[in-house]
Amino acid sequence: MSRSRSLRGPDLVLVVALALWGRVAAVGGDWPGFRGPGGRGVSAEGKPPVEWGAQKNLLWKVALPGAGASSPVVMGERVFVTCYSGYGVRHVRGGTLNDLKRHVLCLGLSDGKTLWQKDIAAAQPEQSCQGARVGGHGYASSTPAADADRLYVFLGKSGVFAFSHEGRQLWRADVGSSIQSWGSATSPVLYKDMVIVNAYSESGALVALNRETGKEAWRVGGFKESWSTPFRVDAPGGKTELVLGADWRMLGFDPDKGQALWSCRGAPSYMCSTAVGHEGIAYALCRDQTLAIRAGGRDDITKSHLAWKAPKGATVPSPVYHEGHLYFPTDRGAAVCLNAKTGEVVYAAELKSPGGEMYPSPVVAGGRLYYLSQGGRAYILAAKPIFELLAQNDLGDGSLFNASPAVSGAKLLLRSDKFLYCVGK
Asked: What are the φ and ψ backbone dihedral angles of 98, each rounded to 5 degrees?
């Protein structure tokens, strides 16, 4: 007869250690939303390869059921991504707006096999891409967000959806029904028990929904021409603020109450990319300039909290902060490094090889910077304030790359308008 035995001493320590190790390993490999943990574009533990190609370090390549510019997200051994089909797909003729569908996919991280797929018909009338700017990025540009229990997907006027990791729809919330020529592209962010979306295109507001029920927690408006994803920055006194680009200003909001806190002018063009922050400073790009703004102010803080302006910027890519410096590519493909404390331009180096404009935002992993062009050419630089190009890689299959990379441990996930790729050794 077998007898049960309670765990004590070294046995209990071993079991607890293994459990904690497993939990840390899973979290360390997660890339739960746009630009990864905290929206910073940094993988603390990841170390993907420096070199890859069609015949080298490409673990798998999967054809997607539609196009899109949203980035993949990773939770545990699952990869989530969105795409669209039926209308407005590059190089695909035919179809009408009534045929437009979004697809939410879950794939296995190890092999790329589809675990489940949900097809969602677009709420009509949707914005036509004929003669409209939405044709530049399509109808699946919002990166999902995931937590330990759910996946949250923002599909513009079609709504915000919550799914279980197994693919069961849990709720749908309507955040507005308006449309405009750029379409919808901002990504949801998670804060406490809320999922927050910039629904400017749909209702001119920032909207917070309860994660469990989808019920609206708060809504705040009063801004125009806002295309960026909100970013959480730590303010003085232990407070958290949401920073958002709009028209020619940066805005700060209280994410607990949905209250507008401050605005900061100084940009020569509209603010499109998503900000990044460090130790109470928010760094934001526009086409020809970078702004550094101290969080914690109230009302118009242009004179009191604008720390510096630098004469380099980008319209679409977002910056990454790493060890006292800001790194980003310009739209036309120059690699820029700024001193985060002063705004001094440390270097601005042209990336000579052709590869198209740079819409994807960079990531930092393993002490390296990963830049990606629309043509699929990747530039790997040393993550240090001296320009050092380590490698150039090209998947070379004619796809269009608008999505930012995702890092999961030793794997790098790249997404084009046709395929999802997993790079690793």
From this structure: -70, -15
To which H or E segment does residue 9 belong? helix 9-28
81: CB partners within 8 A, 6+ apart: 64, 68, 70, 71, 72, 73, 105, 107, 144, 415, 420
**Does a cis peptide bond (omega within 30 degrees of 0) precede residue 65?**
no
Q: Is the pLDDT of residue 102 over 70?
A: yes
Q: What is the pTM of this model?
A: 0.92
352-364 as b/e: b if 16+ CB within 10 A = eeebebbbbbbbb
Q: Which CATH class is domain 8-39+70-184+186-226?
A: mainly beta
What is the C-alpha R_g of the chain?
A: 21
Query: Percentage of residues in the chain with pLDDT exceeding 70?
Result: 92
Mean pLDDT of the region 142-149: 98
CB neighbour class for 65 (10 Å; exposed up to 12, middle 13-18, buried from 19): middle
User: Domain residue spans in the chain?
Assistant: 8-39+70-184+186-226
Q: Is-contact 422 409, C-beta < 8 A? A: no
Q: How much is the pLDDT for 131?
A: 61
